[in-house]
Amino acid sequence: EQPQVLWFDIAVNYILPFAYTVAVWMLWSASPGKILLGLKIVDADTGDNIDLKQSIIRYVGYFPAMMVLFIGIFWVAFDKRKQGWHDKMANTVVIRTNE
Question: pTM of the full predicted structure?
Answer without folding.
Answer: 0.89
